[in-house]
Specification:
- Chain A: Keywords: DNA-binding, Phosphoprotein, Transcription, Transcription regulation.
- Chain A: This is DNA-binding response regulator.
- The complex is a heterodimer.
- Chain A contains eleven helices and six strands.
- Chain A is α/β, with parallel strands linked by helices.
- Chain A has two domains: about 140 residues, Response regulator (Rossmann fold); about 60 residues, Arc Repressor Mutant, subunit A (Orthogonal Bundle).
- In chain A, strands 2-1-3-4-5-6 form a six-stranded parallel sheet, with helices on both faces.
- In chain A, helix 2 packs parallel to helix 3, helix 8 crosses helix 10 and helix 8 crosses helix 11.
- In chain B, strands 3-4-5-7-6 form a five-stranded mixed sheet.
- In chain B, helix 11 links the parallel strand 3 and strand 4.
- The chains are: A alpha/beta, B alpha+beta.
- Chains A and B meet through helix 4 and helix 6 of A and helix 8, helix 9 and helix 10 of B.
Chain lengths: ~210, ~425
Amino acid sequence: MRVVLAEDLFLLRQGIIQLLEAYGCVVAAAVDNGTDLAAALAEHRPDVAIVDVRLPPTFTTEGLQAALRARREQPGLPILVLSQHVEQMYARELLADGTGGIGYLLKDSVLDDEQFIDAVRRVAAGGTAMDPVVVAQLMTSHSRDEPLAALTGREREVLELMAEGCSNTAIAQRLTITEGAAANHISNIFTKLTLPPSSDSNRRVLAVLAYLNA
Amino acid sequence: MKTVPVTWRGRLGRATLDTLVGVAIATGALLSVVLFVTTAYFIVLCLIGIGFLALPYLTRAVRRLCDLNRRVAARSGVPVERPYRPEPEEIEKDIVGWMRRCKWILTDPATWRDLLWLLLNCVVGLAGFVPAALLYYAGEGLFLACGLWRPLADGGQGRWYASVTVESWPAAFAAGLLALVVLTGWLFLGPLVLKWYAYFVRFLLGPTRGSQLASRVQHLSETRSGALDIQAAELRRIERDLHDGAQARLVSLGLQLGAVDRKMNQDLEEARRMLRQARTSSVQALRELRDLVHGIHPPVLAERGLADALRALGLASPLDVTAVVDLPGRLPDPVESAVYFAVSELLTNALKHADARRVEIVAWCEDDTLRTRVTDDGRGGADASAGSGLAGIRRRLASFDGILEINSPPGGPTVINLELPCALSSPKTSSS
């Protein structure tokens, strides 16, 4: 898996490179600013881009903007955005085109290497990886909506994990239930939210997030 | 002038009103004599102590009359601000408080200017009769012209009207014409007289440059001490959060790593468990630091500016928030930050205290002022004087010459307006 990495802090950049290489990824380019990122993405066309939201020269949302621009030029380019903080607004902007291959995680997530690599792989494969903090915010800010109120506590938990991008197996593991039970909850959720069922895990999450964003 | 009458009818109405106001002014001028003499008398009596008893009451009457005249001046398009020093806040009910009040009155230069105005107004204020006199004179001329000159003419001498001796019909006609001229004069002169009078009022009853500066300095020193208090409290909070939170966690992280180091050779499995624990600690430390940073300067505000930061606040709130923000670009940092935290607190209030469901945030720039309106459909009854967070917001905004306006009848809805001057860098000396 070929990765382009954009992170302006030297130590963190080196750390992530080491981490990625330890899990067999190839870092095609590691840059420290928005301008170089755009060039690197155009040149290397990586399997996934890992991008810090805040990058030089402006130290605002340079990374996010560069990533979104690159995605317009290369539709479907998988992007995993790392940030020191999570903001619903950015999550919505990333998810806006609805084509998947999007991740938005706190920088802390690199501390848990397996989960981080799992997220990178999921995004590269066209899935999503949303930080639990974002998902939790999305859930609370829509907790007054009628259809969500109809969900049971367990279904809500399942929905949150779905939104993070977990597969049925992962959900079953996290909640220590059988895979069949997880699938059952999911189909119940679809019914209650009136979403057409689909086997594609990515579409499923996007549908959930699209619903939450509405 | 507030409204410029364009039609004759409008002008006539205006002139009539001016005449009435003029008469009121002149009556006030007669009252001035009384007030002046009484006040002067009691001030003199202050020298032997007795005058102190009556002084506050008299001053109140004097100021009321002065305020009325300020309003009259404002009506003529010459706004006059009140120049008085603010009354000392805590006044004892006993003789000491009474003396303090007298001291406050006597040391305020505006009191003495009021007195001088009373004296001069005895004469100048009589000018208020001018429109009425003109109207009366015009009326007299018209009456004469109607033929009333005959019964009024005394002993065949004719009656003298505006340099015409009315003793025959042609003379009466001429007098009628002159009366019309006077009437026209009444139409146009009335507002003019009132305007001159308004300048006179402003000259003595308006704030002098010195008193303007004094009230400005007082406002600034009050808000500065408020700002310093807030800042000091904020620093203490940050220090405490760092000390009890992230710093303590990092220490425990170090301890945990030390323990892992010791365990390494004995029990690898246990060491690994402790490492995982250490990782959890580091995540927690990060989370606390992140919350702290968010409390100091929210990243979205730094990255995107106020408009998006307000929208983000709305998105993050469990309430149904609509944010309509129309700003020309980035505003000065302190302004953005002040408004952001104010709105954030208002949203919290709406959620916690007002039990609201829907909140609307509207923000726009107008006349170099950032105006923000936050409306919720909660139960209302918000009150800044109840020592709530609203008073805190008001104090914070005051240090930027900002205003917090609350309209929250019991039962709701609550409408809160924030106003902040955007151009903070420009020197501002006028009192606000």
